[in-house]
Amino acid sequence: MEAAQFSDGRRKVKMVFFFLVCFWGLMSLSCAGRLSASSSQKLQVQKHLKRLNKPPIKTIQSPDGDIIDCVHISHQPAFDHPFLKDHKIQARPSYNPEGVFGENKMSMEQKEGTNPITQLWHMNGKCPEDTIPIRRTKKEDVLRASSVKRYGKKKHRSVPKPRSADPDLTNESGHQHAIAYVEGDKYYGAKATINVWEPKIQQPNEFSLSQIWVLGGSFGEDLNSIEAGWQVSPDLYGDNNTRLFTYWTSDAYQATGCYNLLCSGFIQVNSEIAMGASISPVSALRNSQYDISILVWKDPKEGHWWMQFGSGYVLGYWPSFLFSYLAESASMIEWGGEVVNSEPNGQHTSTQMGSGHFPEEGFGKSSYFRNIQVVDSSNNLKAPKDLGTFTEQSNCYDVQTGSNGDWGHYFYYGGPGRNPNCQ
Predict the structure, then answer these.
(1) DSSP symbols for 14-73
(2) Which parts of this chain are annotated as the region Disordered (predicted)?
(3) pLDDT tens across 108-143, in order?
(4) Which of 22, 57, 202, 416 is the residue whose CA sits 20 to 30 A from 3?
(5) pLDDT, tens digit (0-9, with 9 covering 90-100), for 323-345
(6) What are the C-alpha distances in Å from 134 to residues 208, 273, 280, 281?
(7) Active site residues
């Protein structure tokens, strides 16, 4: 009897031991799987960083923690594109829209000569000729993205579609807008002077931006978009600084395009302005107001889309082959603000758009776009006709247009997000 009990006990111990061995085996397998997954992710990140961060001729440390690499113009990320292998860089556009350099009126930009907007890194040096400044991408920047592949890309469905103000459709993507727009013609560019602020962002995965959209195609999978302005995006940049940015896509943000120089596409020719670098100074409530002027236009001779910052910095161009519809012209232009509303705790976000103040509060409190213009088929800048406005929830963010002799066509826009009327 005792012998039987003993062998029974031994069998139980063996079984327990067997289960333990299996358990630890499975654990170590899953650990090994996790380890190899994380080491393959590390490898992916390193490869991506190597692709983005080209060997610099000179490096400048910016006071905000950015590292600006001065990279030879012919080694920039654009030339990783297979179609650009033998591309001859166009140093200047063939034509500028009339009136860009010869505006008769003494514009505010000229008066602002006393407090020009610069980028923070300029305090510590500048890039030599034949190089372009590129903000270095750090490992932690890429790791904040949902995947290495999605780093530097916008989420789908983030363009405001004014004609279909269906609340279900507009809130589905979590993006909210307050914009002015024109459509129904062929457009060859757009210009605006944009008031610069530093809006507060509630969640790191949200952003707030103010920009121009140059759009072609339908709002389906084939949308072409060129975008430029300023943004605060903790996810993309790791801080809450206001930064100059550009974006492009030729397939509604699916596979093509990116912010700034984070993929091949945009060809930069300017050695003084860095895409994605902090803008300084910014406007303050009831205090000095600062604005930046941005012009995007299609060179009628070469067909490339050029971007100019301020009155003298021609930054570079998007080659026309990147696009389908925009290879010809744009069918819609939008100006205004956009935020991500991720509805933290089931409530509307308190991420601010613009200055965080509503349009009716006016100059010094609310953010504005002024001197908004479009470029016509003769390459002339002209006032927009039949300017429409659009916002998904005017109690959260709103827009109000106007026009006068000094500011041409303008609008105030933005708001605080969550408030007693916006839950």
Answers:
(1) HHHHHHHHHHHHHHHHHHHHHHHHHHHHHHHHHHHHHHHSPPPSEEEE-TTS-EEEEEEG
(2) 149-172
(3) 344 433 356 789 999 999 999 999 999 999 999 999
(4) 22
(5) 999 999 999 999 999 999 999 98
(6) 22, 9, 18, 20
(7) 227, 338
